């Protein structure tokens, strides 16, 4: 399928990038990230244009990054500002600089045409702002699976009953399920509602209002691969709007065609000051994904490595969202490629 380049991708959590040099591959390209002495976050192509040495092997000198090999120094725009081996202006040597923006506790990178980068188009994850009204925990997992497989996994929540029966899934939920897919110009939302069921194991310790609940789970995808799951629990038959709210961010940044940077965050609207609960929710989320989803995703990738990424059958009620999102993404990628051609 390839990659959509004119889009914002999450590069790191903001606190992860300091004056040390962080190397990361994004959309197959080597990137180095760091902060200057004045605190500016920078993303450059991780290759010195002189002898192709990775810039992350060097160091930060004030507002410049210095190559480890010959001491060339580049500014935040990738322009060489110091070459100790020649006299005069050294700025004919340049390295690509990528637009970088801070939103919602994260740093976002624009991999396409710089003049088209508009930070106002970054997906809205304001529920996860550190100074917001919700308690938030977040993390990162490297996945040996392509982002398309992960999109399918996240947009098809029908798997929860079978893959996660003892965590986030509820056995028997498919019998009371209502589901639909809504698509706009730049999003696809899968809407799921289950009625009059006991809460799943992961929610049960936090719910004491009734023995049975109604649960709404809306998963929204926006290009490139930014997803938001909005879960709301209420007492069965209660339409007052009161209940528990568990939004979660699922942000996929392709590393390569077959590997993915998976950034995630979970928020809640209750017991916001309970740090022990925050830690427990983080542990439960990590264990569910790494112990249940991740092995399946990576097994599918290994199968694709052997047989090729052949089209898969769409036979279940959960397939529609992934199909429509991939179709929209493929159209956007084709549009970019036709312009470049």
Automatic annotation (TrEMBL):
Native source species: Pandoraea captiosa
Pfam families for the chain: Rieske (PF00355), VanA_C (PF19112)
Molecular function via GO: 2 iron, 2 sulfur cluster binding; metal ion binding; monooxygenase activity
Keyword Iron-sulfur tagged: yes
Identification of the protein by name: Toluene-4-sulfonate monooxygenase system iron-sulfur subunit TsaM1
InterPro entries associated with the record: Cholesterol_7-desaturase (IPR050584), Rieske_2Fe-2S (IPR017941), Rieske_2Fe-2S_sf (IPR036922), VanA_C_cat (IPR044043)
Domain of life: Bacteria
PANTHER family for the chain: 3-KETOSTEROID-9-ALPHA-MONOOXYGENASE, OXYGENASE COMPONENT, IRON-SULFUR DOMAIN CONTAINING PROTEIN
Enzyme type, top EC level: oxidoreductase
EC number: 1.14.14.-
Keyword terms, alphabetized: 2Fe-2S, Iron, Iron-sulfur, Metal-binding, Monooxygenase, Oxidoreductase
Annotated Rieske domain residues: 8-109
């Amino acid at each position: 399928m390839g990659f959509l380049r004119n889009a914002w991708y999450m590069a790191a959590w903001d606190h992860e990038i300091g004056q040390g040099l962080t190397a990361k591959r994004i959309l197959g390209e080597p990137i180095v990230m760091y902060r200057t002495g004045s605190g500016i976050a920078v993303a450059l192509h991780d290759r010195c244009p002189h002898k192709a040495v990775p810039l992350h092997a060097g160091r930060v000198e004030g507002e410049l990054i210095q190559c480890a090999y010959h001491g060339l120094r580049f500014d935040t725009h990738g322009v060489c500002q110091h070459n100790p081996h020649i006299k005069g202006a050294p700025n004919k040597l340049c390295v690509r600089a990528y637009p970088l923006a801070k939103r919602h506790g994260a740093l976002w990178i624009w991999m396409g045409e710089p003049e088209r980068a508009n930070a106002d188009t970054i997906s809205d994850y304001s529920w996860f702002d550190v100074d917001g009204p919700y308690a938030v925990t977040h993390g990162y997992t490297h996945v040996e699976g392509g982002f398309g497989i992960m999109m399918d996994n996240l947009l098809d929540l029908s798997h929860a009953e079978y893959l996660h029966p003892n965590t986030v899934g509820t056995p028997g939920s498919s019998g009371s399920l209502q589901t639909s897919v809504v698509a706009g110009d730049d999003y696809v939302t899968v809407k799921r509602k289950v009625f009059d069921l006991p809460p799943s194991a992961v929610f049960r310790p936090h719910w004491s209002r009734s023995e049975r609940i109604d649960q709404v789970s809306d998963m929204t995808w926006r290009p490139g691969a930014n997803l938001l799951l909005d879960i709301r629990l209420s007492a069965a038959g209660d339409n007052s709007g009161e209940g528990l709210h568990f939004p979660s961010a699922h942000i996929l940044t392709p590393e390569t065609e077959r590997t993915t940077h998976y950034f995630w965050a979970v928020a809640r609207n209750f017991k916001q000051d309970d740090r022990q609960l925050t830690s427990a929710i983080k542990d439960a989320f990590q264990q569910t994904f790494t112990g249940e989803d991740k092995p399946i995703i990576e097994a599918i990738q290994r199968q694709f490595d052997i047989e090729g990424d052949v089209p898969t059958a769409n036979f279940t009620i959960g397939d529609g969202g992934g199909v429509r999102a991939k179709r929209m993404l493929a159209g956007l990628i084709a549009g970019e490629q036709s312009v470049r051609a």
